[in-house]
Amino acid sequence: MTIHARTLALVDDLRKLPAETPWVEFKKDNDDAPMIGKLISALSNSARMADEHFAYVVWGVRDGDHAAIGTTFEPSTRKENGQPLELWLAQRLQPAIAFQFDVIDYHGTRLVLLRIPAATNAPVEFERTAYIRIGSATPRLSDHSERLRALWTKLQPHVWETGVAEQFLTGDEVLARLDYACYFDLTAQPLPDNRAGIFERLAADRLVLPDAGGHWIITNLGAVLLAKRLSDFSPAMARKAVRFVAYGGTNRADTVTHRQDGQRGYASGFKGLVDYIDGLLPRNEHIGKAFREDQPLYPSIAIRELVANALIHQDMTVGGAGPLIELFADRMEITNPGKPLVSPDRFLDLPPRSRNEALASMMRRMRLCEEQGTGIDKVIRAVELHQMPPPDFRTEGDSVRAELFAPRRFAEMTRDERIRACYQHAALKFVSGERMKNATLCERFGIDPKNAAQASVIIRECQKAGLIRPADPAHPRAGYVPFWA
């Protein structure tokens, strides 16, 4: 479909509205610049309140009966104080907003359409004042505290997920691009026997939204979760695909042995990705009582949870970057774009903060990741069960990296690894309602109880590093807790 066809269908839909709404305004020829500035602020804020992606002003449509009567308004030549109208408006609107004027030949009648994106991060202000639409009035937002609170409530969860990945698609085009059968399977819902039922469920989860002229929008959430091919969407969306690279040695200069650039959405491709990685891992030898001959090099639950965390917690607004999984001979690194919202040393105990709450919620419903706040617990439990070196969670530039290390005996672990393992063990015990003791640390490392003094040395070093403290200084046998307890 052409852009012009969508615009005509959009005007058709706007004219069919029974009356002006808080996000739609009709004008004849009024081109007063301050009036337009206030309208942009008010309609943008009101569109967010109404969960609309855009607000609109249409010149050339009569307010009463919505008849297309035409307009003489010409935004491209209109000046205000010697400046082009669009520049004059842009300089007075904060935050910056990508409004757009379009002159339309509407079946032989000249109309002007102003598209106004809904507010995203903060209320839109014109000349340092935010406005809102109430009926036909455009009052200051600050004079209506209840609406201001409601707007901030709407703004807080508005993130990348609600954006438009593709618009003005027919039903057939939507179903060709999205793996809708996967959605029904993973959410344990019966597949409806008619198209209306399919779209009703997809729209209820805001994976698709109605568009002009009976067409549909695929949201960013719908595309990133269910795309059959992410390359069917914009290059920015395609770059959100998960990349996997395996190296023949211990650094990136070694030969690449396997590479897979994900094509499918996260939900439709998740199981295949995890199975692919698991299939490449060598099976492990007996190291400690927890290992069996058929065990993969890394616990499957740890890989699954760390990959899911990378998908959920990435910063989707970072351009040209997506999750990256790298497999080396001695470790696995899982990197996602975006600085963490929680300090890496508190991933275990603090409630997770995600930029992508709808994505996280949907992946939990699809049973692709654990319930909120338990994923890192399971990673560390699995690592301790297999007496492996502790995982490392850290910030790398503007990204977060989780590192899993191949099995090594206690004697082969570095001093820093032993201290980090001690801290993680104390934290895991604390969040489980227990306390770390010398005996539990011996078990974690596979240290013979006759050599418990080795665990005592690690505990002292971990205390010196400020990572743990005695649970009760007056009673040394009470055990130890993390520094934040």
TrEMBL record:
Key word ATP-binding present: yes
Highest taxon in the source lineage: Bacteria
GO molecular function: ATP binding
UniProt cross-references to InterPro entries, sorted A to Z: RecG_C_sf, Schlafen_AlbA_2_dom, Schlafen_AlbA_2_dom_sf
Schlafen AlbA-2 domain: residues covered: 20-138
Keywords, ordered alphabetically: ATP-binding, Nucleotide-binding
Protein name: ATP-binding protein
Taxonomic source organism: Banduia mediterranea
